[in-house]
């Protein structure tokens, strides 16, 4: 089974130890660990028959489905590289990412036109349903073929950042094993509901965490609050990890059931309630605490490139509002002279696929430059103050949007706010606030926004422009505000 820490052993080991235990559940369908390992072996034989070999890349363009899991397991077994792309991508974007991945094969479900994309790129294509059908006739034993080493690439995730060209983050078998390993002594973990889409690293990190611990993953095809609440309750899930925007949906669903007198508005089975990826307000954290009264609340900060970098949990969540905690295991952190957070350790990615310039810029002397500005307090707790590329330069001064947003968010009537820099011939950029009001009929005016900044922020950080919106544009996977889109939309509206 390969050399060293390889992902294929996760499936083989769980099938030997707990063959009848549920590995994954979606709706009314369940895959046991024995079934998943066997399906992975059969799929591996089928993929080898289609010409896929060790080191080849396979693009998987599909929605959340149990049928995708054997493909993931099969590619790990034969040493090919799994490259997922989002099912909601338009054909031209899917074609661009597929071309960038230079795959041997495209696997796509019936909801997308994978054949057309594969033809445009000039590679082979197989439908996911067709692959499942073909695999059924293959042997259930693992194929006799070249096996991966732990340093070989296992996955490539194309980043979905708010600006710039997506980059393919290469993660080795060893890195993915280490990022998700439960420790030398297995302890009861319980079922985890996964709300992340299956083209996102978060989904596979959560899946491998569960599978290495030999426990159950519950997938939900929709991320509305009611569906997530129903899944947690049906399976008595002990773990739930949501980005802040999705937690808001969960809390809204729980509030609605209380109003309708159909539930008590809590999820008592949860033992761990996790969040992160973007700013998490004290109000949201308080709401999660009430909704999951038996859970330890945790806030994580990390990235596809670096994995889980820091964590904040327990009493510290409310004691250190705005912080993202202390370094996670195996992570070494440092701040550059410009206060950019840098990370070093065995969990880092291998580089950006086919992009040596971007890799050289991000990885310097063994350190990954996160692009995040950070500060540490007297106890060593880290706080993110903004993105280096999001810094606003106004009149020679630097402004971190997150710092201004945290102040403006305290204004009564503000539901959400994003701070951006608008081009200006005099100042270079001017600070602009885009506000989503709680009530469109009672909008907090510019005077109220500027007044709250007095005495709390230097004058050059006060918003000089204020715009209002029904909602903020966010990335699909992580809910991060797309600041560049806001700037482009505002500038386009101001152009005669």
Automatic annotation (TrEMBL):
<dbReference type="InterPro" id="IPR042099">
    <property type="entry name" value="ANL_N_sf"/>
</dbReference>
<dbReference type="Pfam" id="PF13193">
    <property type="entry name" value="AMP-binding_C"/>
</dbReference>
<dbReference type="InterPro" id="IPR020845">
    <property type="entry name" value="AMP-binding_CS"/>
</dbReference>
<dbReference type="InterPro" id="IPR050237">
    <property type="entry name" value="ATP-dep_AMP-bd_enzyme"/>
</dbReference>
<feature type="domain" description="AMP-binding enzyme C-terminal">
    <location>
        <begin position="403"/>
        <end position="476"/>
    </location>
</feature>
<dbReference type="InterPro" id="IPR025110">
    <property type="entry name" value="AMP-bd_C"/>
</dbReference>
<dbReference type="Pfam" id="PF00501">
    <property type="entry name" value="AMP-binding"/>
</dbReference>
<feature type="domain" description="AMP-dependent synthetase/ligase">
    <location>
        <begin position="14"/>
        <end position="353"/>
    </location>
</feature>
<dbReference type="InterPro" id="IPR045851">
    <property type="entry name" value="AMP-bd_C_sf"/>
</dbReference>
<protein>
    <submittedName>
        <fullName>AMP-binding protein</fullName>
    </submittedName>
</protein>
<dbReference type="InterPro" id="IPR000873">
    <property type="entry name" value="AMP-dep_synth/lig_dom"/>
</dbReference>
């Amino acid at each position: 089974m390969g050399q060293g820490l390889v992902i294929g052993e996760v499936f083989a080991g769980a099938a030997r130890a707990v063959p009848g235990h549920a590995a994954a559940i979606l709706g009314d369908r369940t895959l046991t660990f024995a079934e998943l390992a066997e399906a992975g072996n059969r799929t591996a034989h089928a993929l080898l028959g289609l010409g896929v070999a060790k080191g080849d890349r396979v693009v998987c363009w599909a929605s959340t489905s149990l049928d995708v899991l054997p493909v993931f397991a099969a590619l790990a077994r034969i040493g090919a590289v799994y490259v997922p792309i989002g099912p909601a991508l338009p054909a031209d974007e899917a074609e661009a990412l597929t071309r960038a991945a230079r795959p041997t094969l495209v696997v796509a479900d019936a909801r997308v036109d994978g054949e057309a994309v594969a033809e445009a790129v000039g590679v082979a294509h197989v439908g996911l349903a067709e692959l499942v059908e073909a695999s059924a006739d293959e042997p259930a034993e693992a194929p006799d073929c070249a096996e991966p080493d732990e340093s070989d690439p296992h996955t490539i995730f194309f980043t979905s950042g708010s600006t710039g060209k997506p980059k393919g983050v290469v993660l080795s078998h060893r890195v993915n094993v280490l990022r998700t390993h439960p420790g030398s002594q297995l302890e009861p973990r319980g079922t985890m509901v996964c709300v992340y889409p299956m083209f996102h690293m978060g989904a596979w990190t959560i899946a491998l965490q569960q599978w290495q611990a030999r426990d159950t993953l519950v997938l939900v095809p929709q991320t509305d609050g009611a569906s997530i609440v129903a899944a947690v309750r049906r399976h008595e899930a002990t773990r739930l990890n949501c980005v802040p925007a999705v937690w808001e949906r969960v809390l809204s669903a729980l509030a609605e059931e209380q109003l309708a007198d159909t539930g008590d508005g809590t999820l008592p089975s949860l033992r761990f309630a996790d969040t992160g990826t973007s700013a998490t307000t004290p109000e949201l954290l308080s709401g999660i605490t009430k909704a999951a009264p038996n859970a330890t609340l945790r806030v994580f900060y990390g990235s596809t490139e670096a994995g889980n970098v820091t964590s904040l949990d327990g009493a510290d969540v409310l004691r250190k509002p705005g912080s993202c905690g202390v370094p996670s295991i195996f992570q070494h952190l440092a701040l550059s002279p410009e206060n950019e957070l840098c990370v070093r350790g065995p969990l880092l990615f291998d580089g950006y696929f086919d992009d040596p310039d971007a890799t050289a810029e991000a990885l310097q002397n063994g350190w990954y430059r996160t692009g995040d500005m950070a500060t540490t307090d007297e106890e060593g707790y880290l706080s993110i103050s903004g993105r280096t590329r999001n810094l606003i330069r106004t009149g020679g001064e630097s402004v971190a949007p997150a710092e201004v947003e945290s102040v403006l968010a305290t204004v009564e009537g503000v539901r959400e706010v994003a701070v951006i820099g608008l081009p200006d011939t005099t100042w270079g950029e001017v600070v602009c606030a885009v506000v989503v009001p709680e009530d469109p009929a009672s909008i907090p005016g510019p005077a109220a926004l500027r007044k709250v900044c007095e005495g709390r922020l230097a004058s050059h950080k006060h918003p000089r422009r204020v715009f209002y919106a029904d909602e903020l544009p966010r990335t699909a996977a992580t809910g991060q505000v797309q600041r560049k889109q806001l700037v482009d939309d505002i500038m386009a509206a101001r152009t005669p």
